[in-house]
Amino acid sequence: MPPTIRPYRPADHDAMYDICIRTGNHGGDATGLYTDPRILPDIFTGPYLALEPQLAFVLTDSGDRAIGYVIGTADTPAFVTAYRERWLPTVADRYPEGGGNERDAQRIGELRHPEWMWSEAVADYPAHLHIDLLPEAQGQGAGRAMIEHFLAALRALGVRRVHLGMSSANTGARAFYDRLGFHELSRSEFGVLMGRSTD
């Protein structure tokens, strides 16, 4: 059977954390990069599962094993507020400021200061998304199908535009987003912001 896209279930949580880590180094495995590799999904996966589970969709293989996901929010400013008030208190103690190495410190700053998720560059693109697929799920059209699934969910909520952030080093991802109609909104030393309409 081909991969299937279905809504997130709480039983998918650990598999989605694992996918985030295994794709967290510009699309490659980030397992050994951080003192605690869970910091990546605690920033980029966990808050969406906790705060916006209705916009979390899982790609599964024939055995219903998660091999990818797309997650996000319809309203980034509201999400940042909810993250700070409801998510951050559940994980902050695990990542004290000043802990770990330089790479850890950058991620700890991102985790503790979620305001980086919102800027004037994306003011007209209120929704945002993250998509991650294991290598075995790539190159088969699943990524396109997942983005289209997510865009349909946003349209149903009346959301007109969406953005995403990516590493400028991830050239494969950039080519993928270009093919899907995303265009560059801004660029910095930290990466590229891209956006498109949900139509």
From TrEMBL:
InterPro entries: Acyl_CoA_acyltransferase (IPR016181), Glycosyl_Hydrolase_84 (IPR051822), GNAT_dom (IPR000182)
Ranges for domain N-acetyltransferase: 3-199
Keywords recorded for this protein, A-Z: Acyltransferase, Transferase
Enzyme Commission no: 2.3.1.-
Gene3D superfamilies, alphabetized: 3.40.630.30
PANTHER family (UniProt xref): O-GLCNACASE (PTHR13170), PROTEIN O-GLCNACASE (PTHR13170:SF16)
UniProt protein name: GNAT family N-acetyltransferase
Species this protein is from: Streptacidiphilus alkalitolerans
